[in-house]
Amino acid sequence: MNLTKLFPVQKVLDERIMDKHPELKGQNNLDWKILALQVELGECANEWRGFKKWSHDQKPRTREILVQCDLCGEWTDYTHEVEGITVTKNYLLEEYVDCLHFILSIGLEIKFNRYHWIGNYQRPETITEMFLSLFDEIATFSNYVKGESMEFPWLAYSTVVEAFLELGEMLGFTWEQVEAAYMAKNEVNHERQLNDY
Asked: Which of 19, 62, 93, 185 has a C-alpha 20 to 30 A away from that of 40?
């Protein structure tokens, strides 16, 4: 896992967003980025579906269901060919890397641009507990950065990152999958900025 190499990639996207939205320059952008992370984490949990005890359909949205292809409009499974292009949908992974975009962006916001494993996070036993714990760690980080002293924001931030990486492992993602999906979504995010998304 090399999270450090993704910070410069995220920085380019963040700068492009700032150029498109100059009202964001020179202000504290942590609040909305933290909220965006929490929303994306909720969307990730929604695609995981394991907490939906009221439903008979609790399978994660990876490749088990039919979806409508963005390229051809056909209803199909997650992977198929369209004009020589392999179309793959993994909604759970997509939501996970949406979270990763905001985690990296928050790191850059607090002047944190490289990461190494500290090992200060205790992994819960279940994925449900993992999601709840990650929400708690994000809230703790948010409260910390709002406090009087932001002397060591990287410590609370590192705990969020470790919890997030543990979640990815519990969801069954390899780092190679996460990195590839991050790069693909980063490209989509750049295209969205070009098209005034």
From this structure: 19
Cβ distance 138 to 94 under 8 Å? no
Q: If DSSP states are collapsed to H, E and C, what string results for the chain? A: CCHHHHHHHHHHHHHHHHHHCHHHCCCCCHHHHHHHHHHHHHHHHHHHCCCCCCCCCCCCCCCCCCEECCCCCCEECCEEEECCEEEECCHHHHHHHHHHHHHHHHHHHCCCCCCCCCCCCCCCCCHHHHHHHHHHHHHHHHHHHHCCCCCCHHHHHHHHHHHHHHHHHHCCCCHHHHHHHHHHHHHHHHHHHHCCC
Fill in the amino acid letter for 124: P
Question: Positive or negative, the Cα torsion across 168, 191, 8, 154?
Answer: negative
Average pLDDT, the chain: 86
Amino acid at 88: T
Residue pair 153/107 in contact (Cβ under 8 Å)? The answer is no
Residues near 171 by Cβ (< 8 Å), separated by ≥ 6?
48, 60, 92, 96, 127
Rg (CA), the chain: 18
- Of residues 34 and 153, more confidence is placed in 34
User: What is the torsional sign of CA 126, 95, 47, 154?
Assistant: positive
pLDDT of 145 reads 86
41: pLDDT strictly greater than 60 = yes
